[in-house]
Amino acid sequence: MQRLAGKIAIVTGAASGIGAASAQLFAEEGARVLAVDRAGSAIDSVHAGREAIVPLARDVTDAEAPADIIGTAIQRFGALDILFNNAGVSANALAEVMTDAQWSRTLDVNVTAVFRMCRQAIPALRERASKVGRARIINTASVMAFDTDYGLAAYCASKAGVAGLTHTLALELGKFNITANYICPGAIQTGMTAASFANADIAAIWAKKAALRRLGKPIDIARAALLLASDEADFITGHGLVADGGLTLRT
Ligand SMILES: NC(=O)c1ccc[n+]([C@@H]2O[C@H](COP(=O)([O-])OP(=O)(O)OC[C@H]3O[C@@H](n4cnc5c(N)ncnc54)[C@H](O)[C@@H]3O)[C@@H](O)[C@H]2O)c1
């Protein structure tokens, strides 16, 4: 039995890394997926040949993006069960020298766009939940929602923002049978970390920090998203699911 049979999902940041793996896994589990990423990303080619995945090139921070994206899902598939806000960026600069542009872009993509996407999707999710009994919001945060590292002021602020936003959505939307949860990935080998982990010493340090002694793969986080998207997660809401291989167990 496919775990997302008949569901309709939106996945953002779906051209690479966690988003690409999630779009693929959701489709394998029976969902039809609107896979969103920036123009200029690999979004138009990476899912080629997969009939259940419809690519859409949009920057989630554009003013019209939420209406366009949710509208396209409804137009193509007729409803929306799962909104997975996963697109994200990271700016690395010490606070003392971080520019306004670095700060704003990180907050705009990682938390403001997530809020605007959720706000736009709520009526469609409510309608779907009233008919089928459930709907889902899943947001990608990070272990940096509660931990930190040098240079990550904007990134950490944005991911803590995702956590706070998602807690509040969970509270407000529970009565409509909409769950809202966020995932806190640890160190995952994706486009975002490719430059760092290309350095074997850096990759080895991060792998060694984790209890499971390895870096995460996109599929590790896609499986966490699948769990939260599935019907089995009906009573889980407002939860931050840490999927880090034990990276953050120790102080
Ligand atoms: N890789 C890690 O170690 C790690 C750890 C914790 C959290 N995360 C989070 O996981 C999420 C996915 O990142 P990833 O690691 O798969 O990196 P990635 O770079 O491989 O994928 C991120 C995708 O988001 C897209 N994106 C960025 N800005 C966008 C925008 N404005 N509009 C549309 N799409 C946009 C990118 O084009 C890219 O395809 C992010 O939210 C990231 O912060 C990653």
Describe it.
This protein has 251 residues and is of the alpha/beta class. It has one domain (8-243): Rossmann fold, CATH 3.40.50. It has helices at 17-28, 43-46, 65-77, 100-132, 153-173, 194-197, 200-209, 218-229, and strands at 8-12, 32-37, 53-57, 82-85, 135-140, 178-185, 240-243. It has a 7-stranded parallel β-sheet, with helices on both faces. The chain starts with 7 loop residues before the first strand and ends in an 8-residue tail after the last strand. The mean pLDDT is 98. The chain binds nicotinamide-adenine-dinucleotide. Nicotinamide-adenine-dinucleotide binds next to helix 1.
- The helix count comes to 8
Shape: globular
Structural class: alpha/beta
Largest sheet composition: 7 strands, parallel
The CATH superfamily is known as: NAD(P)-binding Rossmann-like Domain
Number of domains: 1
End-to-end Cα distance: 41 Å
Low-confidence stretches: none
Question: Helix-strand pattern, N to C?
Answer: EHEHEHEHEHEHHHE
CATH class: Alpha Beta
